[in-house]
Amino acid sequence: MNIDYQELMNNAKEAAKNSYSPFSRFAVGAAVITPNGKIYKGCNVENSSFGLTNCAERTAIFKAVSEGEREILAVAIYSPNTDSCYPCGACRQVLFEFQGDYEIDVITEILGQLEIQKLSYFLPCGFRI
Ligand code: THU
Fold it and tell me: Taking the complete model, does pTM exceed 0.85, yes or no?
């Protein structure tokens, strides 16, 4: 499948606008695409009990999985608050759970330029039961 990385990043940027981040003031948006070409967006959702915060990536992944998806082909991550936004360790492992035969592409924007890496670059030895 041909993935439009720029479109995925545009969706991540859109999602960042809905970020609920009154505590960190660090907005993040993410978008994942599945084999049928559907895109699911997510933002970070913080909580007064700080540890309950959900990252943008996991919001997008959980939205997709809860709609019946089981495989993710690519994820785009964006924050208007930094020059480059990489997925945290927890989100890397959650992405790995839904990697099929095709290695997940991770798209970030660095100083306005798209950077595309395989998930294994960020998580070399993901855990699977
Ligand atoms: N955050 C994400 O949404 N994704 C990441 O990969 C890293 C961190 C959020 C969590 C929290 O709301 C804010 O960024 C600051 O840590």
Answer: yes
